[in-house]
Amino acid sequence: MEMHWFEKWAVNSLSAFYLRWYLLPRLLTLIDGPLAGRGLVLGPGIGWETLALAEKFPEVTLIGVDYDVDQVERARRNLKAGPSLVTRVAFEQGDATALSFSAGSFDFAFELNVFHHIRDYPAAIREVHRVLKPGGRVFLQDLSERFFLPGVRQLFPPESRFTRAELVRELDATGLDVETATGQAIIFLRARRR
Ligand SMILES: C[S@@+](CC[C@H](N)C(=O)[O-])C[C@H]1O[C@@H](n2cnc3c(N)ncnc32)[C@H](O)[C@@H]1O
Questions:
Q1: Residues of the domain holding 80
Q2: Which residue's CA is minimally distant from atom 24 of ligand 1?
């Protein structure tokens, strides 16, 4: 669950660039309609993606839940320093495999580069399913086992390794219908809760 020190340094130094030049444009193509309501962001790290999504979609409120207290503090500092989003965005410490929210309390969820950090990632999928309303969407980007080549996996050690097909099967078995899934090493996927 805790990131290796090198990965934490790399993520914190580069996530703004990664977000702007790679992640966000691709993520936005997954969002096939207006986004509104209450959204969960799993593992938001220092918060850049959550803040960018809140700016892009003025009808949403977002709660980011990260396991790492330092990251939550950094995300809160970034929230306060930026444009006025404090009424629509909050960051909390928590565990994606045991969320503190009631069943059916979110309209949608984002999962960005977190499942590969969780040994029991199917438990996190079950939690996403539990807290989403029926019909709620999941927007996901994660790294498959193909990403973790020798060398890469020493610098960015995963707790879980899965193929795209395995991830799709796990989501489907939990009650989340996968609507689109692309990429073999870097997976982009959208699912809907049954
Ligand atoms: C690689 S970073 C991704 C950060 C950000 N989402 C991004 O894509 O740049 C993984 C994040 O997941 C968090 N994390 C790991 N295990 C978690 C868990 N069980 N529950 C919630 N967050 C977790 C880590 O603390 C870290 O901030």
A1: 5-193
A2: 43
